[in-house]
């Protein structure tokens, strides 16, 4: 019963409780006047009035205390939420800088080094390509056929060099952010890795350019070229992959973890 009364009182607005209390007080006063007369009612009122005032005061004091506790709890939740948001924002900025650097290396690692990936011969072009390549003469027809294919491949290979140049400028900005978002040790590790990654892509670009020249020249005149070494590029790619796994991941591990909610 007591719990129901407390729940009923807490669910009602304060002004309704005040009105109901005043009405009950008036009804009690009228009842006392009718039963005991004015003199006894006056004495009884002198005794009950301070008690009623004390009860009302206690009620409002208790309400203010509960309100203060709720406001304190709300402030603590808001502070915790704001702190978590700051940690998440910092995590996002750190991960973005790390991801940008890794995207360049992934581009290098997945870059195809076979010239056919850039010639992009259609089935009809492939048939004619092998037919003309087997012919001993007719250089004019060979040049007319291979020139648009060479230009198409050259554009694709040129895009690799342009991407490397543009990416180098962006990575410089990312590395400056790394200096503030991580630590000097992480900055140095990522700086060395990024430098090697750009040097690798530069070598890949130059090698593909040589492969294109070799393919075109051998198609037209059948001159034998020394094959550019792809094994060295493959070793460098695997070496950077190991460095990424052993050095970078370990250096960044304390910084790249999702904050507790």
Fold and architecture overview:
Helix content is 86%, strand content 0%. With 261 residues, it is an all-alpha fold. It has two domains: 81 residues, no CATH class; 163 residues, no CATH class. The longest helix has 97 residues. The protein starts with a helix and ends in a 9-residue tail after the last helix.
Helix content range: over 70%
Rg over CA atoms, rounded to whole Å, is: 41 Å
Average pLDDT metric: 78
Largest sheet: none
Report the portion of residues in β strands. under 5%
Number of helices: 7
Compute the number of strand runs: 0
Order of helices and strands: HHHHHHH
Cα end-to-end separation: 40 Å
Number of domains: 2
Spans of 5+ residues with little confidence (pLDDT < 50)? none
Structural class: mainly alpha
* Overall 3D shape: rod-shaped
Question: What are the key terms here?
Answer:
single chain, 261 residues, mainly alpha, 7 helices, 0% strand, rod-shaped
Question: SSE layout and pairings?
Answer:
Elements: H1 2-11, H2 14-110, H3 116-119, H4 123-133, H5 139-181, H6 184-221, H7 231-252
Helix pairs in contact: 2-5, 2-6, 5-6, 6-7
Briefly summarize what is shown.
With 261 residues, the chain is mostly helical.
